[in-house]
Amino acid sequence: MSEEFERRIAAALHAPVGVDHRAKRMVMEQVRRAAAQGHPRRRPDVWTRVTRHSIVGLAFAAGVGGISTLSAILPPAQRTDSRGVSSVVLGDTVVGALHDTLRLVRLMFDAPSAQRVAVTGDFNPAGAGTTPLARDADGRRWSVTLALRDGEHRYAFVVDETRWVPDPRADRITRGADGRLYSLLNVARAAN
Amino acid sequence: MSDRAIIQQVLSGDVEAFSRLVDRHYERCARIAVRILGNREDAEEAIQDAFLRAFKALGDYEEREQFSAWLTRILVNQCRTVMARSRRRDAIFPDLDPLAMDFAVDANTADGTWPELERALAQLPVEQREAIVLKFADDLTYEEMSRITGAGESALKMRVQRAFARLRAILQEVPSV
User: Fold this and answer.
1) Under an 8 A CB cutoff, do B63 and A166 touch?
2) pLDDT recorded at residue B113
3) Which pLDDT score is estimated for B34?
4) What is the distance in angstroms between the Cα of A154 and the nearest Cα belonging to chain B?
5) Does the beta-carbon distance from B105 to A23 stay under 8 Å?
6) Which residues of A touch B170 (CB under 8 A)?
7) What is the pLDDT of residues B74-113, one digit of tens each?
8) In a shared domain, residues A102 and A187
9) A113: domain range?
10) CATH number of the CATH domain containing A79
11) Which residues of chain A lie closer than 8 angstroms to B15, CB-CB?
12) What's the structural domain count of chain A?
C-alpha cells in the first residue's frame, strides 16, 4: 500500500506539465537582447592570470630540508616568486610530518573575485570532498600546500562551488570518467 | 549534437544555437519549476530567468559538469528567489490563492494530473518539496541532488521520506485518494 502510494506520487511528479510555446519563445527573445549587450562574456583576464600563476611552487624531500622547485613546469621568470612563497609556507611542523616518499606541492590560483576556491583530485580520499585553498594576504591569490606521493595526479580547481576549472598550466589535461576535465601533474618528474 | 557542442557553437557567436538547448531542456525545467512553485506563472518566470542567467554565464561553464545539472542548479536558485518574492506578494494580498486560480496561460494540460497532489505539495516545507520534486520530476540521484541543492545526501533522503509521510497524511483526507 505504501509502495503503491509512493509509486503514484513519483509518477505524478514525473508526468509532463505541458509547454507554453509563447513563454519558450520569450526565452530566446531575452537571450537575443542579452547577446546584443555582449553576453555571454568570457573571462579572459582570469584565465590569463591562471595560466601565468596557477601551478605549483615547490617540492622537497622530507627530512633533508632542501627545496627544489618544480622547474620542469615553471618558466624561469617564476622561479624566484615560487621560492619566495616557499619560505613563507613551509614550517618545521609541516616538514616533520612528512615521509620520505612525499613531496610538498604548492598549488596557486589567482581569482580575486572568488569567495571560495578548492582543489579536488585523486589525492583526496574518496568521499572526503575538496581541499580548500586559503586566500593570500594580497587578496588575489589562493593557495594550498599538499603533501603528495611521487607519481601522476589528477586535479582541478572548484571556484565558488560552481565553476570547475582545470589548471591550464599543467602539462596535460584528461577527461575523467565523470566527463569533467582534469589537469595532470607528475610530481616525481616535476621535482627532478 | 551534444550540449557541449552546442555551447561551443554559442560561444563562437551563434546565438541562435542556444534555442536548441532551450528546446532540449525547457520541458524538464517546467516539470521541476511548476511543481516546486505550484503555479505556472511563477514557474515560467523562474525558467526564463534561469535560461537567461545560464546564457550570460556560458563563458564560465565550459569544462564543468553536465549542462543539465548546471542549469538545474540555476533553476532551483531562481525558484527560491521567485518563492521569496511570492511570499512578499502574498503578504500584501493575503486573499489571493494562486492554486485556486486557473493557469493564466493557454498551455496543454497533461493527462494524469493530480490536482490534490499539487495542493498537497504546496503544504510541504520548501526544502521537502524541493527534494521530492528533484528526486522524481527529474529522476536525479541523491548525489546529483546534493550537488544541486548544497544539502547532504542523508539530509535529502530524510527530506524525501518526510515529504512522503506528510503527503500521505494530507492526501488521506481527500476522498479521491
Assistant:
1) yes
2) 61
3) 92
4) 15
5) yes
6) none
7) 999 999 988 887 665 444 434 434 333 333 222 333 444 6
8) yes
9) 44-191
10) 2.60.40.10
11) 31-32, 35
12) 2
pTM for the structure as a whole: 0.55
Count how many pairs of residues, chain A against chain B, have C-beta atoms within 8 Å. Answer: 125
Condensed to tens digits (0 to 9), the pLDDT of residues B20-30 reads 999 999 999 99
B139 interaction partners in chain A (CB closer than 8 Å): 14
Same domain, A16 and A69: no
> Does A12 sit within 8 Å of B107, measured CB to CB?
no
CA distance to partner chain A, nearest, from residue B104 (Å): 11
Tell me, yes or no, whether A12 and A82 share the same domain: no
In chain B, what are the domains? 1-98 (1.10.1740.10), 108-177 (1.10.10.10)
State the smallest CA–CA distance between residue B53 and chain A in angstroms.
Answer: 9
Residues A83, A154, single domain; the answer is: yes
CB contact under 8 A, B63 and A24: no
CB-based contact, B88 to chain A, within 8 Å: no
Amino acid at B88: R
| Residue A71 near residue A83 (C-beta atoms within 8 A) | no
Average pLDDT score over residue span B127-146: 93
Rounded Cα distance, A7 and A15, in Å: 12
Q: Same domain for A57 and A28?
A: no
User: Does A88 touch chain B if contact means CB atoms closer than 8 Å?
Assistant: no
E-state strands within chain A: 58-59, 68-69, 102-110, 117-121, 131-132, 134-135, 141-149, 152-159, 163-165, 172-175, 181-186
Mean pLDDT over residues A74-91, rounded? 30
Q: How many CA atoms lie within 13 A of B63 on its CB side?
A: 18
Chain B within 8 Å of A10 (Cβ-Cβ)?
yes
Which position has the grid cell 582570469?
A46
Contacts of A135 (CB under 8 A, 6+ apart): A117, A141, A142
Encoded amino acid at B141, one letter: T
